[in-house]
Amino acid sequence: MSRYAELPDETNELYKKYHMETSIPSAEEMERNEKTAASASDVQSLVASIEQRTGLKFDIVLSRSFAKSMSENVQIKKTESIPGILSDKIYKSSDNRLAAFINANARDAIVAEIKPGSHEKFNMIFINDSDISFECLFKLGEGARLEAFQVFASIGKGSTCASLQEFSIAKGAHMGLTLFGDMGTESTLVSLSKGILEENGTMNANFIYNGSKLTKSINFFDTRGTGSKISVSEAIYGTGEQRFDINTHLLNSKERSSTKLETGAILDDRSHCLLKGYAKIEKYAKGAFSNISQRGILLSEASHIDALPDMSIDYSDQVSATHSAATSPIDKEALFYLMSRGLSDSSSRKMFVSSFILKYLGSIKDPAVKEIVSSAIISRTEGNPPGEMRNITLKDIWFSSEEGRNEKMVS
Amino acid sequence: MKLEIINLHISIDEKEIVKGVNLTINQGEAHVIMGPNGSGKTTLAKAIMGHPQLKITGGDILVDGKSIKEMKANERAKLGIFLQFQNPIEVEGLGLLSFLNTARGAITEKPLQYKEFINEIKSASKDLAMKEELIGRSLNHGFSGGEKKKAEILQMRVLNPKIAILDEPDSGLDIDAVRIVAANIDKLQKEKEMGMLVITHYSRILEYLNPKFIHIMKEGKIVREGGRELISEIEKSGYSDA
């Protein structure tokens, strides 16, 4: 049995019970969607519009009809030329229909190789212009550093998008990832990520799920090297009938490895979220640290969160392992406090929601990226649909510096 | 501005907590309510601010002769009423600075320029002997009890109310902090001619303030009223004879 087959998806009865079916389109629907796919110029104009509104420049653009890379470290290749990505058991074993979808809709793959010791930063945008599957392979050499911001956007309300990403973090390397799901309300986002961290490799991964009718995420991170460290933050904002099935597995494989998962979800209307966090401390992972924390706020009576924090500890020598989950309605005393300072009921709610979500964006290093993401969520609290990123003026951004002072960004 | 509490009755979950309180606070006047635990002081303070969970079963609250009973808390704040909370709420992720600037904008509809605003905050925090790093943090998050009380007074100064209700501004403060907080309250009250209602258990803070009106509250009612002489009487005999 492979190590992936031992993950709780395969064995845990609760995971089988708390499971959302992936709404993969049929072959006929895929054919129909392909005929109505957006053109390359539609994609380029959407990218230009987002760039204008946010002030960001995207180094990599990937869609069914258009692909470009402005970075010499990033190559766009035909998926079939990179054997290995699609054949990984974590992807295929979880859902056969999904594997069929990926095989049918895979076009281009991104291969990013960061040389040992070098520092890179990418802004990437994936456009769901019809049913599509993206694959990305990130290879960080020893001591390399990469900060990657990934936006998943759609043209119109969107269709189905599958993303398969693999991160290989070599000795002493660091990767910061911010994945922002902001596709339209009729779309499905299936996001599968796998990270392998070698000795003293570190990764901060931020997953923000804002859009899509259904978001299904399976993340697996393995601290395979001594002293390696993975920290995952997940922020979820759901309204209407949105559904989220968020499944993150962390594996402490070696001595002094550290894994951390913090998830915050705010749901309104009839939205529903499954939070599945699983951490496993393997034998002989002496001095390992693992923490899972799941927190949910329900803004309506019909919204629903099922939280399943889970741990399996095979070794107990100098190991620290904790997990917790809590879900509650919005704090009425906090709302009264904010209102007593002159803020209206709706402003107080917005402020409370955005501050809750901001906690889970804390490890995003780039203040502009943090502002773009938080503004998009605040826009949702004002009743706007996902996928409508607001105009950002960087000089107006207030942010907390690492020294803890509130400062203003000067453009 | 004149705040009138007229025969006010307040219930929580059908249980009457405040049982017919009458009180009038004019702008520029400093009042004190003292009383034992559970006498309804905090309930009264929250009801004046418009807490939605408190049910007013009788009487009225008037500002300049007009009832504010149906007004929401934010509307009362815009009229110029401020409540310093006994246990201020922590909101992680909401920066104190951006919150205060938004609140100030909501109340005065004249947001300050960034530099002017920061200067005011820095000056207020210096007067209150607050660590400067606190103003860069989330709202009350990780603050000690004393720091929270100081942050409440800082908010009061920035929001510049006409009538302030201070619910135990001295609890959780050490001797030096009581003196500093009291000095700031006294200065603001005099400079801004603020109407003020201070709720406290202890007379120490009153050594630094100069209230002319003392009210003793027991079992949901104001049972005695007078001047400063009441403070020393309570110090000697406690509330049982009040």
Can you give keywords for this protein?
heterodimer, A: 411 residues, alpha/beta, nine-stranded mixed sheet, 21 strands, disordered N terminus, disordered C terminus, B: 242 residues, Rossmann fold, six-stranded mixed sheet, four-stranded antiparallel sheet
Short summary:
The complex is a heterodimer of chains A (411) and B (242). With 411 residues, chain A is of the alpha/beta class.
Give the secondary structure arrangement, pairings included:
The complex is a heterodimer of chains A (411) and B (242).
Chain A lengths: L7 H4 L1 H5 L9 H9 L4 H15 L5 E3 L4 E3 L4 E5 L10 H4 L3 H10 E9 L4 E10 L3 E9 L4 E10 L5 E10 L4 E8 L6 E10 L4 E8 L4 E10 L5 E10 L4 E10 L5 E10 L4 E10 L7 E10 L5 E10 L6 E10 L2 H8 L5 H15 L7 H15 L16 E3 L5 E3 L3
Parallel strand pairs in A: 1-5, 4-6, 5-7, 6-8, 7-9, 8-10, 9-11, 10-12, 11-13, 12-14, 13-15, 14-16, 15-17, 16-18, 17-19
Antiparallel strand pairs in A: 1-2, 3-4, 20-21
Helix pairs in contact in A: 7-8, 8-9
Chain B lengths: L1 E11 L2 E12 L3 E5 L6 H9 L5 E9 L2 E2 L5 H7 L1 E4 L6 E5 H13 L5 H14 L10 E2 L5 H15 L3 E5 L7 H18 L2 E6 L12 E6 L2 E6 L2 H9 L5
Parallel strand pairs in B: 3-10, 3-11, 6-9, 9-10
Antiparallel strand pairs in B: 1-2, 1-4, 4-5, 7-8, 11-12
Helix pairs in contact in B: 4-5, 5-6
Protein architecture, described:
The complex is a heterodimer of chains A (411) and B (242). With 411 residues, chain A is of the alpha/beta class. Helices cover 21% and strands 42% of the residues of chain A. In chain A, the strands form three sheets. Chain A has a ten-stranded mixed sheet, covered by helices on one side. In chain A, strands 3-4-6-8-10-12-14-16-18 form a nine-stranded mixed sheet. In chain A, α7 (332-339) packs across α8. The longest helix of chain A is centred in the first third of the chain and has 15 residues, at 40-54. Chain B is an alpha/beta fold and 242 residues long. Chain B has a single domain (2-237), classed as 3-Layer(aba) Sandwich (Rossmann fold). The longest helix of chain B is centred in the C-terminal third of the chain and has 18 residues, at 175-192. The interface between A and B is large, with 32 and 39 residues.
